[in-house]
Design goal:
mainly alpha
Length: 77
């Protein structure tokens, strides 16, 4: 079974549908058992959906803040 860190590292590929069947099954199995990773995946989906609606391009500072937040989330898993 996958660890949370592995799940978080591959979550974007899962959402893009860029995974082999075996990987998808492992991700889903972990997702079914881990409420933290379900929340992480839900947040990642929301973030990806909101990006097209952002007002203008993000500044370097805004990008850095989002990346820091995602890295903190990943480390807490």
């Amino acid at each position: 079974m996958l660890k949370c860190r592995e799940f978080a590292g591959a979550a974007d590929r899962m959402l893009e549908g860029d995974m082999r069947l075996r990987e998808r099954l492992a991700m889903r199995l972990h997702w079914l058992h881990c409420h933290i990773c379900r929340r992480y995946l839900r947040q990642l989906r929301q973030l990806l959906r909101s990006v097209p609606f952002m007002h203008g391009p993000a500044s370097d500072e805004e990008v850095a803040q989002v990346m820091q937040h995602l890295h903190r989330q990943e480390k807490s898993l």
